[in-house]
Amino acid sequence: MLWVNVLSFLAVSHVYCDAAKILVFGTSNSKSHMISAGRIVDVLVKDGHNVTFVNLEVGHSIINFAGVRHLNVVPLGYVTPEEEHEYTEMVAERTKHTFDKETVWRMHDGTARFVESVVQACERALSQNTTTLNQLKSENFDVLITEQLSACGTGLTEVLNIPVHFIISSCALFDPIAKIYGVPTPMGYIPTAMAFSSATDSMSFTQRAQNLIESEVVSNAWMNTYTDTTTLFRKYYGNNFPDVRDIMVNRTPFLFVAVDDLIEFPRPWPPNVIRVGGLGIDFAHAADGLQLSEPCASEMTKGEKGVVFFSMGSAANTAGFPEIAKRNLFETMKNFSDYHFIIKVDKSDDFSRELLKDAPNVFITTWAPQPLLLRHPRLKLFITHGGYNSILEVANCGKPLILLPMMYDQTRNAGVVERNGWGKYVNKQTLLKSNKEFKQALTELLENESYTIAAKRIQKLLQTKPFTANEVFIKHINFAIANNGQLPELMPVANKLNLIQQHSLDVYAVISGVVAVIVLIFVKICFKLAQLFLQKLSGKDKCE
């Protein structure tokens, strides 16, 4: 039925004379990533392109997911309800360990397990969806756009004979992808994408060493996704199948990164790397015509000094948080009696509900209309996990943040916000000891007006920047299509150079050697002259 819908849609949309046939490839391992992929589809369809959305099912099934509005979805590697339940249980179990002390080896193992799960999903698609893949190939797509989380989409570019390939990184650019495309990543002041110890662009020696180690360890684990995916496609399509990294480089005129330059560490970008943070989201009109319903409407009127909203997103289940951490969080909030707190927890989080049931300044809920709450004039502060979409959303509302990163790129995101003065990063580990750091941050954010002023500034910057993410994305897509996806003029050669060549270490070594030889010769000459002078002086003394 889904495939019939796709074919019907493609037939109707041929009325667009300049429309390209575009295949958008996403994965369902994260609800936020499914939503992001759906937004890409919506932007392309709105511009008049013929779009098919192919989703590699990893953990979640896309079929009944309400977060994707696009009706023309082709699932690959179907996830059964039983498998989805197991995946949900696994995520809940993983949350119990989010407060464990992070190490590079733990990060390496987590990355390796994720890569393995995505490659396994890709193999299921290749082995079980042959008919669907043949139907897709017969459509003769012009373009394939894939997220960075799976190289399966890149491999399908070759299988389906699609000439133009784009990658969109749904978060800060992964270091291994930066290496493949030759994107400069000075580790002395650019925090690695999956930083977990700290994230700042003003690093001490120890921080620079930690940053470099974290980058190399995670990159090592992530590179397996390209090696293993290439091996997988060669298993099904022969040993001559190209390395997916070669497909990435040779068929990709633009690499899109879903960050906004105003909410990112300033760094060098080549001309073929385009930033599109907020793609598919119309922040200015997201809440047009919508009003808060009860009980949230009444809750927003409470609190003498205003309202604080607490939400940890969908990836981290609060039921799995250590009880001591939740006690330090929520007991602290109860003591700020001049403010009303709206606290979103998971359905199974009975401990938090029991802890807060008698708190007069707390409303606890399992769901909240986040966009409407963030826009409300009485909202004074947002306490969040630091997912990039949430940060973009609150930035467009001009509200300050307390950030409690749980996993992935969230520590880095928190560092960006803290760098620019409109939020405060609190290490989750401190909540296992006391409420001291969280209480200090809460007091400072609520009493120090500078954070609100900085938040209003970032809001104005975002509202007045020259081009929206949608405009930038569509113009670059259409430009590349108009030129057959061939833009070698924009491709840096850095990805073809080794570390020594990129940084001219051999040149520095030769120059250092020449300087050392000159200095050595100079020292020897000086030493020789000194000897001659002393000998002459000694001979003169003897004559006297």
From TrEMBL:
Cleaved signal peptide residues: 1-19
Transmembrane annotation, as ranges: 507-527
Keyword Transmembrane found: yes
UniProt-recorded Gene Ontology molecular function terms: glucuronosyltransferase activity
Record's catalysed reaction(s): glucuronate acceptor + UDP-alpha-D-glucuronate = acceptor beta-D-glucuronoside + UDP + H(+)
Recorded superkingdom: Eukaryota
CDD domains: GT1_Gtf-like
The EC number(s) this enzyme carries: 2.4.1.17
Entry annotated with the keyword Transmembrane helix: yes
Keywords recorded for this protein, A-Z: Glycosyltransferase, Membrane, Signal, Transferase, Transmembrane, Transmembrane helix
Family designation: Belongs to the UDP-glycosyltransferase family.
Xref: PANTHER family: EG:EG0003.4 PROTEIN-RELATED, UDP-GLUCURONOSYLTRANSFERASE
Official protein name in the record: glucuronosyltransferase
